[in-house]
Amino acid sequence: MKKIGMGLIGPGFVAAHHIDAVRRLGDVDIVAVAGSSQASAEKKAHEYKIDRSYGDYKALIADPDIQVIHNTTPNHLHLPVTMAALAAGKHVISDKPLALNANEGRQLRDAAIAAKVAHVVTFNYRGNPLVQQARGMIARGETGDLSFVHGYYLQDWMTDPNVYSWRSDPAKGGTTSALGDIGSHWCDLAEHVSGLKIAYVLADLTTVIPVRYSSGTSAEAFSTKGGSDRQPVEVHAEDLASVLLRFENGAKGSFSVGQVLPGHKNDLQLEVNGRTLSLKWRQEEQNELWIGRHNQPNSIMAKDPSLVSKDVLPYVHLPGGHQESWADAFRNIMSDAYQWVREGGKPEARPAALATFEDGYRSTCLVEAMLKSHAAGGAWQNVQHSPSNS
User: Fold this and answer.
1) pLDDT-based confidence at 223, cuts 50/70/90?
2) Which residue from 38, 104, 216, 304 could staple onto 55, CB 3.0 to 4.6 Å apart?
3) Are residues 230 and 161 in contact, defined by beta-carbon separation less than 8 angstroms?
4) Do the Cβ atoms of 70 and 33 come closer than 8 Å?
């Protein structure tokens, strides 16, 4: 089988995980990386053991050996970089969020569809086998009609005011922080698993740490690096938020996000309550699915290829009792993405678990509605989402 050529633009924190996941597939050749300068690109290429490096992303996109572009740049570069890749007819795998706002998200969605290429957003929690197990149980009616969808996504990596990265800079990260960064993950997971769309939101946002201290460099996410000579920077984007939800079928919901909550490392939880039973999945205990019943004992379903549904088996790689991880779920998403690439990005060939630019655009619409709700003093806002012309 001929290997697919891949190039990555923006070799920061998440780039290493893109590269690791793609290498595990075995049928993809990582051709080159592009950074903010030739020197930084060469340094990262050496670190990742990649032969070619570019100081200009346009030169990487023009490389004839590359068919797929991974865009892992800061948020403000998602629009120009991805647009350039689509204009060149390349398949694109974009880190989330797809864009800074809903207008940019719609432009990218429409351009990707017009380009007739594979277009993927890395909402990677979809790749966990028990997430797909829960989705299938709901779709088959095992839970009964859903009445409540709720949970949270809590972290603590921004608890220290000395943590300052491009994510806190509105020119690079956008006007939202916690909602755009991790709230987008939770909402995508909730809609994907439940099969329901969020129709209305009511949001309450807070900036717990309004002043951070920058060393003059933009550190990668989760990095502790930085100089000692720091200057105060006012921060206005939210680092804590709670949102009420109304789903299209009348189901209600709620979730909270925060990145300044000590002790919570990557604590994502989703629970769905139906008329027959409830399901709960927690990312930090991702090899277990809690099943709640009102007239029988509750139970825990372990990740085990002998127990999951047949359609979930492609996402399970180890026997029962052998724990699979965040990186394995990420690898599953990449496997689906490159399966779609090999099919030429035909819409009918897209794996069902894969998030597209349509999903990425929808995510920007959800976050934008939440920002509007808070700005209006905590008023319900409907989610404005423009359908594609295809």
Assistant:
1) low
2) 38
3) no
4) no
Output b/e per residue, 180-205; b: 16+ Cβ within 10 A.
Answer: bbbbbbbbbbbbbbbebebbebbbbb
CA–CA separation, 321 and 25 (whole Å) = 23
Mean pLDDT for the chain? 95
Look at residue 229 and tell me whether its pLDDT is greater than 80: no
Instruction: Verify cis geometry, omega within 30 degrees of 0, for the bond prior to 97.
Output: yes
pLDDT tens digits along 33-68: 999 999 999 999 999 999 999 999 999 999 999 999
Taking alpha carbons only, the member of 297, 328, 349, 275 closest to residue 131 is: 328
Paired tokens of 270: 């989703």
Beta strands 4-9 and 28-34 are: parallel
> Residue 226 pLDDT more than 60?
no
Dihedral sign of CA atoms 39, 97, 288, 22 in order: negative
**pTM of the predicted structure, to 2 decimals:** 0.95
Cα-based distances in Å from 170 to 158, 159, 173, 234, 306? 16, 19, 5, 11, 48
Rg for the chain (alpha carbons), in Å?
21
Report how far residue 174's alpha carbon sits from residue 363's, in angstroms, rounded to the nearest whole number.
14
Rounded CA-CA distance 275/127 in Å is: 27
Fill in the amino acid letter for 165: S
In CATH, what number does 128-316+365-374 get? 3.30.360.10
pLDDT of residue 220: 54
Residues 369, 381 contacting (CB under 8 angstroms):
yes
Cβ atoms of residues 304 and 31 within 8 Å:
no
CA distances from 313 to 26, 270, 316 (A): 19, 22, 5
Q: How far apart are CA 53 and CA 81, in angstroms?
A: 16
Taking only the tens place, the pLDDT of each residue in 149-178 is: 999 999 999 999 999 988 888 888 889 999
Report the C-alpha gap between 342 and 361 in whole angstroms: 24
d(CA 199, CA 60): 40
CA–CA separation, 70 vs 19, rounded Å?
Answer: 9
> What does the domain layout of the chain look like in residue ranges?
4-124+336-356, 128-316+365-374
